[in-house]
Automatic annotation (TrEMBL):
Name the UniProt record assigns to this protein: Stage iii sporulation protein aa
Gene3D superfamilies assigned to the protein according to its UniProt record, in alphabetical order: P-loop containing nucleotide triphosphate hydrolases
Record organism: Heliobacterium modesticaldum (strain ATCC 51547 / Ice1)
InterPro entries assigned to the protein according to its UniProt record, in alphabetical order: P-loop_NTPase (IPR027417), Spore_III_AA_AAA+_ATPase (IPR045735)
Biological classification of the source: Bacteria, Bacillati, Bacillota, Clostridia, Eubacteriales
GO MF annotation list: ATP binding
Keyword Nucleotide-binding in record: yes
Gene: spoIIIAA
Sequence ranges assigned to domain Stage III sporulation protein AA AAA+ ATPase in this UniProt record: 1-124
Length: 137
């Protein structure tokens, strides 16, 4: 789901970015509406979208998760605590909707991986727990 052409960069319906050979892109449609359309009409194995956070986005994501679809999504924020100030994201994090949380920054250039966490907020590294969300700042 590419509401603002930021993922696939579609031009006249053709992705300009390589999103893979078996990828359908719904471009220029409101995110929540598009996620539900894709879920109902395409039978997807995976849905990907970015910048989730509005309540209607969260409801569409919850519908997809309850349908057994794997989800890849992004949300912008400085840290987990900031994300928890958004009611919909707080609900999803507390319900452990996501199996992994990847925190990225630009500290050492775009895409610097600051940490990978499990659904409970535990920092993962080589299969070991290195801390928890509650200890992170």
């Amino acid at each position: 789901m590419d509401e603002r052409s930021e993922i696939a960069a579609c031009y006249r319906g053709v992705p300009q970015n390589d999103v893979g050979p078996r990828t359908d892109v719904l471009d220029g449609c409101p995110k929540a509406e598009g996620l539900l359309r894709l879920l109902r009409s395409m039978g997807p194995q995976v849905l990907a979208t970015d910048e989730i956070g509005r309540e209607e986005d969260v409801l569409a994501i919850e519908e997809a998760v309850h349908s057994g679809v794997t989800l890849l999504a992004t949300a912008h924020g400085r840290n987990r605590e900031e994300l928890l100030t958004r009611p919909g994201l707080e609900r999803m994090l507390k319900r452990k909707v996501f199996q992994r949380l990847v925190v990225l920054s630009r500290r050492e250039g775009p895409g610097t991986v600051e940490g990978i966490f499990d659904a409970g907020g535990n920092r993962l590294k080589e299969g070991r727990v290195w801390g928890s969300w509650s200890a992170q700042r």
